[in-house]
Amino acid sequence: MDLQLKGKRALITGSSSGLGAAIAEELAGEGVAVVIHGRDRARTDAVANRIREKGALVATAYGDLTVDAHADAVADSALEAFDGIDILVNSAGGVVRSDNPEWEDVTSGEWLKSFNLNVVSIMRMAQKLAPGMKDRHWGRIINISSIGGSQYRGRLHDYGAAKAAVDHYTGNLSKSLAPYGITVNGVAPGTILTPQSLRWIETLRKQHGWTDDLAENERIYTSEFSPQPVPRLGRPSEIAAAVAFLASPLSAYTTGTTLRIDGGVTTGR
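The structure corresponding to this sequence follows.
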């Protein structure tokens, strides 16, 4: 299927590794000029070079999106690189603490850091890039959320609340931008095999005395720790494919929704 994306320009935040990198590769493969973003220059350049070697148009932007000035610089770099951005994929985000503390041990500062990283960073980029989309009367904003925003599991309270806020912001922003030909959607992955999820599984391994066999730990996670109908973890390519569709002109009638891709683990909402 031709997604009609050739010639479009995209900024994928948090694309120096994990889901963001997979999304950038998928879009580049569809003919999109991509801006790779990250805080670590070496990792960001490595992803950019890997995609560039395949013949894609690639630029880079560096900065911490939790800081206003850095976020502004990232947006400005992206806009300058290709004289505009048509597609914004907000993939930057994550869990503030990897040691899975009890809820009462998470500080107010860590709550604020989690919301700044997962929610306010999205707002910063949308406010910078949506005006150009409005001028062209075409644009796509895709926010990477998590099923943690809709599931109550008694852990990662700050992260889950932040991702719930992302889902709400996605729906609200879609109402504001729909009259300008801009769609705003989200993708809520379950547990995907990324460096971040691998660190989470390693934490669980230590806590529960699991073996060093990743395949076995994947089986335990999906059958015992967090049972789901599809007995494996997701792959970054599966998230990237969904993002590519939402970024394409073919998705023009889809806005304000958050697509769950979670192996069937979600049981409600």
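The longest strand covers residues 182-189.
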